[in-house]
Structures are given as structure tokens and as C-alpha cells.
Amino acid sequence: MEFAFYFASGAAVVATLRVISASNPVHALLYLVISLLAVAMCFFSLGAPFAGALEIIVYAGAIMVLFVFVVMMLNLGPAVAQQERAWLRPGVWVGPSLLAAALLAQLLYVLFGEPSNATLAATSVGPKEVGIALFGPYLLAVELASLLLLGALVAAYHLGRHEAKE
Amino acid sequence: MSWLTPELIAVIVQVLKAIVILLVVVVAGALLSFVERRLLGLWQDRYGPNRVGPFGLFQLAADMLKMFFKEDWTPPFVDKPIFTLAPVVAMSSLLIAFAVVPVTPTWGVADLNIGLLFFFAMAGLTVYAVLFAGWSSNNKFALLGSLRASAQTVSYEVFLGLSLMGIVAQVGSFNMRDIVEYQQQHLWFIIPQFLGFATFFIAGVAVTHRHPFDQPEAEQELADGYHIEYAGMKWGMFFVGEYIGIVLVSALLTTLFFGGWHGPFLETLPWLSFFWFALKTGFFIMVFILLRASIPRPRYDQVMAFSWKFCLPLTLINLLVTGALVLAAQ
Predict the structure, then answer these.
(1) Domain boundaries, chain B
(2) How the protein assembles, per its UniProt entry (chain B) (predicted)?
């Protein structure tokens, strides 16, 4: 399981790097899908298959489809890829890379300064445990999230209606 | 032979079983192209392919020879990596989902405790095949086809998941084997979950892009939609992928609503379990083909309105009632 975890997280890191550096927007979205699938694999190897499956269904299967849908509608040609390449000059990378490297150094210090020595995937969290946790201690968060979604739904309905009238 | 431990033998046997299931599904998918044309001929009062071999049985071999030796032409204006990747996704995603289907008590590839969710995940990924095929082809008709496909996917995927939640609530598990065992002790789910069956069947037809949900590849107005630029084996993978989808959805309908491998005389003749499974799955494959033979194609805004305004409320009501009954029974 340890090998699966490191393999999947390595794939996730490489795919995410390509999301940022790819000049073609549809290729970047494809790498983002791969990155989400790799994160789902990380969840599987950490003993949370339910979270992994939901990651694929919700993010890779539904949200990314909308992203790809919109980008496809924009009909971006080679000119956009050219423009993107011009924007991604090496000089642009320096500032963000330094900041990200500082954060990475901090993360590595915390991880390796005090190793917890806990084993990977010691317990497997099934759908039932997730459901009990969501409707037990985290009930308030679930209710707040559903209120937020209801608000978004009403707003989307309003926007769609307005457009239909015109 | 000290390295041949019992554990290793068990692993090898499981791998062999998985390979056999894989081959059977792919061969069944390929054979369906012949079966479908013969059955369509029967229902439309014509012969269908009946020239190659007895009853046209070798038509499949002729078709495969043609497909293998056709020039695999990649147009110069396409986005090459994605153009090549799309048919692979089309064929493999639903094939992988077959891993969670329990064929008989002893046969089956993966016994996942999130079995149903794994199917939803793979069904969600199949849409990328159509999307990327349409986009990378750089062709108006292909792009229109894949836009329709994504609009259709977003509409039906919501109630595809909800239609099966009644079963999950009653069984209390996402595991496919648990669902089959539950049906052995109680009724087959076709009776208590009839609304779930009806909506899942509609969503299942939409997953495979089959008639009457084949707007993404409508011949009349889109000239075959998203796979218009494909030729040779790449087109063949889309073609076989569609039939694998039919086999998968039929097997799922059997497993979830018609008791899986259960049937009479199983106590005396255990090998009949595969026969019952194949018989029920074959019946649903026939229904798929009969649908194509008999129903006209609706407009695609009608398909979307039907799924949002009719099927989604129906599945929600079904889930509410099932939940109330499960609570009352406790």
C-alpha cells in the first residue's frame, strides 16, 4: 500500500505540474483530470475508498466535464497556445517558485522533524462510517453546505430564467 | 516446486478467471454487432447479413478482417495525442467497470465494498471519450456531437446515481454480492424498486449512447457526430466500446434488479448459475436492440427536459418512500 500511495502521489504531482505548464488549455484540463484520478488513488491507498470513489464521481466525472465543456465552446486555436507560451517566459517562474519552495521547505521540516511513524491504511473507512460521521458530529456543517447549495441553485435558476426571457 | 505455495496458486487462479471474464465480455461485445444486425433484420422484415457462412455466422470475421486491413488514417488537422487517446478511453472505461459484476457465486473479478460507486465513477469517465474525440477532430459536426454528449451526460448522471440509492438503502451496502444475496432472501428488486428499475434502465441506455439517446452520433443531422473523422481500428474501438456498454448495463440490470445468478434448480445443479446469469443478461441485450428497432429519435432538448423534469423527481420520490419504509421497518 505504501508503494501505491507514493506512486499515485508522484503521478499527481507530475500531472499537476503539467496543468500549470501546458500551453494548450484542453491538454491542461486533461492533466487536471489525471491529477484528480491520482488523488483518488491516494485516498484508496490510505484506506478511504469511499472518499476516493466520490473524488472520481464528483470532480473527475461531473465538475471537470463542465470545465471541458466551456473550454471546448470557446474554440481556442493555436493562436491561444502561442499566446500562453509567450506568457510563460522563464522569468515569470522565479517569484512563485521561490515562494512555493519556501512553503515546501516548511512542510518538509514539519514532516521530517517529528516523524509520527504511523502505518499507512491502518484502518479502512467505509461508506457507513462516513455517513455516521456526517450525520452525527458534523451535522451542522452538512446543513450549512446544503443551505449554500440551495442558494446557488436558486441563483442559477434566476440567471437561466432571465436569459430565457430575452 | 517449493515456490508454488497455495496462496500463489489462488492468485493465479483469480487472475486466470479475470482474464476469461475479460475475453468473454470483449468477444460478446464483438459478436453483438452481428446479432444486432440479424435481429434488426428479423424485426424489420428483411434478411440482414446472411451470406458469409451458415446463417451469416462468419460475418463477424469478415468485418474484423475489413477493419484490421483498412488504412488507419489520421487527418492532418487533428490534435494527435488526444485523437488517439479517445477510443482507448471509450473501450476501456466500461470494460473496467465490468470488474465489479459478480457473474456466479465463485466467478467475478473484484469484490469491492464500494462496488456500485466504482461503476458510477467509470460511467462518469466514459464521457471524456466522446468529449475528446469531438474536440480533437477539429470538425464542426464532431464538436456538435460531443457538446450534445456532455449536455446529455450532465442531465442523466444525476438520476443514474439516485435511481439505485433505493437499493442501497434497503440492502445497506454498496457491495454487488451483498445486493445479490439480499435478493435471494427477499424479493427480486424489480418489484419493490420498480421506479428505480425504470429510471435506471433509461439512464443505462443513455450511458451507452444507444437509441433513443444517440443524439451525439445522429446520422441524419450530424453525419455520425463525434467519430466522423475516425477510421480503421480506432473507429472499431468506439464501435466495440458501445457494445461492451450494452453488455455491462444488461449485466447490471440482471445483478441489481433480477437476482443476478439466482434461478430454479441451483441446489442440484450449481453450474446453472452462469446459465441463468447469461440468459437474463441476453434478454436485456435483446431489449436494447428492440428499442433501437422500434423507437424514433427525440430531439436532444426533449431528452434533457425529460431527464430533469420527469426522471429526477421520480427517483427522488422513490428514494424518499424507500427511506421512509426502511425506517418504519426497523
Answers:
(1) 75-329
(2) NDH-1 is composed of 13 different subunits. Subunits NuoA, H, J, K, L, M, N constitute the membrane sector of the complex.
